[in-house]
Amino acid sequence: MKKVGALLLLSSALLSACSFENSNVKTVKQVLEKPQFENTSVHDPSVWLDGNEKYIIGSHLQFAKSKDLMKWETLSESVASSQLFEDVFKEFEEEFSYARTTTFWASDIIQLEDGRYYLYYCLCEGSSPLSVLGLAVSDDIEGPYEKVESFLTSGRGRSPDGQPYNATIHSNAIDPHVFYDEAGELWMVYGSYSGGIFILPLDKTTGLPTEETYGTKLLGGNHARIEAPYILYNQETMFYYLFTSFGGLDADGSYNIRVARSKNPDGPYEDMNNQDMIDAKGEDGTIFDDISIAPYGTKVLGNYLWQYSENEEYGYVSPGHNSAYYDEELNQYFILFHTRFPESGEMHEVRVHALLFNADGWPVIAPRRYAGEKIETVSYGDVQGDYLIIEDQNAIVPDTIVSQGITITDKKISGDYSGKVELGEQGLATVQLNGETVNGHFLPQWDEYTEKQTMTFTGLTPEGKAFMMVRK
Fold first, then answer.
1. DSSP readout, 300-338?
2. Which residues are catalytic?
3. What percentage of the chain exceeds 90 in pLDDT?
4. Contacts of 17 (CB under 8 A, 6+ apart)
5. How many Å apart are CA 299 and CA 464, to the nearest integer?
6. What pLDDT, on a 0 to 100 scale, did the predictor assign at position 160?
7. Based on the number of CB atoms within 10 Å of its own CB, is 3 exposed (0-12), middle (13-18) or buried (19 or more)?
8. Is the dihedral of CA 168, 218, 54, 452 positive or negative?
9. pLDDT of 305 strictly over 50
């Protein structure tokens, strides 16, 4: 099937050549109606498609499903209410004792070649690396699952390499994501604070590790706040994209989503500045050294606030722990994550956004949540108007970036930024903002706040700075 990525690797020269010269002509064909959203509060959502249903599983065995990525049915809100196991507290009594906890953390589900569903679970208390990671199997994605084996632990004793466990370099056995590479081999990427993010080969038949090891380290260490690894392959760019979340997950923790890429599933991974992510770690002897890791990884989503007026604003706080997938039926990529909201404490919900790939083959996130929109060609007439604009920074701080204002008239940009717009096909665009080149996408979207269809833009500079725009 033709992938959307085939249309996403146009050069800047091609974008210019494909530009529409008549700025008064509108070409957008889709008309978006007011969508119906039903929200769910699955923390750390990991997605898996099963027929027409999209399932997400997260921490605390929170579980939900949707047919359209907009209306979610919550199947479980806690370990106690979950039907994924027949007697979870009895079955995992030993694991609860080891991890000193009464709950599960982030989980992942994949269907292997035998048709069964493989649930990768982890248990962790949170303030220490005493963690357990293992596998359960079911014939039905909604369970019940039967524990196969808890195959990886961390936090005490000796590591699989025989050395005394060292929390600054060895794994924290949580946050699993299991995936097939293009050669059909099975991998698990996992890890968090403590020693960093690791990747481990799995047996394609059993779903278990092929050897006793923590695997290959991809990034992190010295208790750097890097977690929630998720790997997505794009068949057109032929890159594996490693998403991680930097910072702390709570409302003042500065959680943000970053990405790096590699030609191989087990790395090495580099960001847009060609930095090897293995160097993203805290200084020796430090804990939560955000300053050392902040320059690494291409940041695609963080704290921001769209300010329509002094008393009218909307935004995200500490968005993160994402999953992502390519939807063959819709011929589009999507990213799913949890987020908190301004002045709303620790309340969180899942959000789904279109995931686009710019002319340089890097993923960018649509500014508004998904509401049925499709990627299409736009004209200069389509993109005219007054916009709110967000310019992101790589810093890991709790500050919220507040939007500024610009106006697009014909090809020119004025207001808090000056510059110009060059359009290509399928929404691809190059935007000049105060001398910086931003490669990205214009996309018609539904604006949940203003309750109308609007135009949006999302893109990255060659150095990895993210910009987003929403027409008011």
1. EE--EEEEEETTEEEEEEEEEEEEEEEETTTTEEEEEEE
2. 44, 227
3. 90
4. none
5. 7
6. 84
7. middle
8. positive
9. yes
pLDDT of 3: 40
Q: What are phi and psi of 324, to 5 degrees?
A: -155, 155
Query: In the structure encoding, which two tokens stand for residue 376, read together?
Result: 């299409």
How far is Cα 244 from Cα 256, in angstroms, rounded to an integer? Answer: 8
* Amino acid residing at 198: F
Question: With 50 as the cut, is the pLDDT of residue 20 above it?
Answer: no
Distance CA 249, CA 238 (A): 31
Kindly calculate the radius of gyration of the chain based on its CA atoms and give it in whole angstroms. 22
| Phi and psi, residue 228, nearest 5° | 60, 55
What is the band of 309 on the pLDDT scale with cuts at 50, 70, 90? confident
Q: What integer pLDDT is reported at residue 162 of this predicted model?
A: 86
Whole-structure pTM value: 0.94
Q: What is the pLDDT of residue 23?
A: 53
Confidence category of residue 62, pLDDT binned at 50, 70, 90? very high
Report residue 222 as tokens: 């010295």
d(CA 259, CA 370): 20
Residue-level pLDDT at 14: 36
Whole-angstrom CA distances from 81 to 103, 181, 268 are 12, 34, 41
What's 233-292 look like in SS3?
EECCCCEEEEEEEECECCCCCECEEEEEEECCCCCCCECCCCCEHHHCCCCCCCCCCHHH
Position 225 scores a pLDDT of 98
- Where does the pLDDT of residue 24 fall: very low under 50, low under 70, confident under 90, or very high at 90 and above? low
Q: CA-to-CA distance for 5 and 37, rounded, in angstroms?
A: 28
What letter represents residue 356's amino acid? L
Please state, in angstroms and rounded to a whole number, the distance separating the CA atoms of residues 389 and 407.
10
Spatial contact of 369 and 350, defined as CB atoms under 8 Å apart: no
Helix/strand/coil for 90: helix
**Quick one: which H or E segment has residue 94?**
helix 93-99
Task: Please state whether 272 falls in left (phi above 0), alpha (psi between -120 and 50) or beta.
Answer: alpha
Which residues, at least 6 apart from 358, have a Cβ–Cβ distance to it below 8 Å?
A: 8, 364, 428, 439, 440, 441, 459, 460
**C-alpha span between 57 and 75 (Å, rounded):** 10
Q: Which of 74, 49, 54 is nearest to 64 (CA)?
A: 74
Q: Identify which of 148-162, 300-314, 363-377 has the greatest average pLDDT.
A: 363-377
d(CA 155, CA 35): 46
